[in-house]
Structure formats: C-alpha cells, structure tokens
Predict the 3D structure of the following.
Amino acid sequence: MSLHPSLAAVRVAVRRSLTDLGPGDTVVVACSGGADSLALLAATVFEAERATWQVIGATVDHGLQDGSAERADRVAGQMREIGVAESLTASVTVDAPGIGPEAAAREARYAVLGEIAERYSARAVLLGHTLDDQAETVLLGLTRGAGGRALAGMRRGFEVYRRPLLDVTRLDTETACLAEGLEFWTDPHNSDQRFTRARVRTTVMPLLERELGPGVAATLARTADRLRADSEYLDAVADAAHASAGEGDALSVSALAAMPDPIRTRVLRSAAVAAGSPSSELFHSHVTEVDRLVTDWHGQKWVDLPGHLRAVRHAGLLAFEVQ
C-alpha cells in the first residue's frame, strides 16, 4: 500500500530537519494535542525507530481553559500510545503583568520546554508551526507595520528549537492524523473572533485565497524565507554595533546616532527586549518613539514600553528602566 502524500510530507519534513542528529540523541516534541503537533510527534517517532533517537513527548497545561488538566492527561496518553520513550506533562501559571495572555503563555511554555531540554540533554525541541502559521504571522506583521523582522516570519530554528513543518500545510497535518487514525483536538481559541490571529485564520486568509486565487499562504511563507537571510545578516551587524555602543547597562547616544537607521533601530529593539520588554508586544511604533530619543531629542522625559519598562535619555546615555 502506498504512503499517503500528507503523511509522507510530514515525515520527510521531520527527516530533513534532523539530519544532524546521531544514534541515541534525544528529541523533545512539544505536543498540544492539535493536528499539527500530533502529526509532528507521530512522524518523529516513526523516523526515530530507524535513526535510533529517543523521543520525549511534552505537553504543557496553561490552565487558561476549563478542562485543560484533563485534556493534558489525554494528550499524555496519546503520546504514550504513539510510542514516545517518555511522556511529560507540565502545568504552568500564566501570569505576566504588562503583556497579553498569549505572549505570557508562550513565555511560560518556552521556559518549561527549555528546562525539559536541559534535563534530558536534548539535541532538539520540535515545534509544530506550519506553513499556514507562517503565512498568518507575515500577514499580521504587515498589518502592524512591524518591518522586515516581522515579514521574515518565524525562524526555522533558534537555540535548541526547530520548526520542521514550515513547508507543510495545516491541511496536510490534519490529513496525516486522519491517515494514522489519530484523533486531534481543535483549540476553540483558534476560531474565537476576539483574537486577531483567529480572525486572520478564519476570515482574512480565506478571503484572500478567494479574491486573489489559491496559493496566497504559500506565497507569504516564501516571502518570509526570502527576507530571513537579509534579516539575520542585519541582526548580526546590529549585535556587533550593540556591543560597541554599550556603556554598562546603558547605550551611548553618540554611538547610536552614528549608526545607519536600520542598524540603530535593531539595536534599540534588542536592547529593549534584553531589558524585559516582550518581543511579541514590542511593535515598530514603540521602537520609533525610542529612536526619537536619539535622533529627535528635545528634552522629552521617557518612552513607555510593554513589560512595565521605559526608555530614558540622561547625560548622553540611553537606558531602559523598570517602572
């Protein structure tokens, strides 16, 4: 019997993402019980049998919905049935004043996954974001005027984390689950019109596909790939500039003023994030106002930033202070 194309697409994506792993290496797969992460987990377990990797399944209960603890237990059971070496469930408290609940949940989730990766000496932590997620991220970046960084979308890998499915559609992950008889959970937040991403997913993207023709999601995802290399190069240049402008915990205003605009704004953004401003809540408009403390200084006191942070200019230095 031939392998279903959707199942093959997910398995090939996992195989390509993990070519640098060797026998006995440990891989952690973050699994919410949705189609994307379940398909990713099943494909990783399948590939691990031949490559002799150890696969750890991890699900995180954010406690944001009724019945979330029971659902986490069901996901843990599914992961064991799929064949992971170990199934882990972690409960977190989502409480981060100054940022939205989605950003707070993301921070808590990454903290847990990072701890698991360290505990098991994992070579990789796999995340189930798909081509559709990438397209939605790019579109949201466009609407927020967030610049090249947002248009470059989600990174395929950073630190220990990898996103093998950025070339795989959500339809393929759902079909792959059906082909393997895996019952997946559909998060009601994904269709809750109170959330901007849900409106993009259920209303905006279908409208674009209908009015502009099929393939809009794939085109947006390709745009992210093309801009990623440019963005990473500029980020590397900005990192070096950031280091040269540093004076203790502050930045030299004269050094900042001498930088090209694209580099200076990157330095300001990375400095704000390092000081505690959540990257997902820090928009281009915030960075522009901070930049005015350098390029259009006329005595303004400070600029308030997400995360109870403010940018302050004093005595030729730009500092980020907790309010």
In short: Residues 5-212 form a domain with the Rossmann fold fold (CATH 3.40.50.620). The chain has a mean pLDDT of 89.
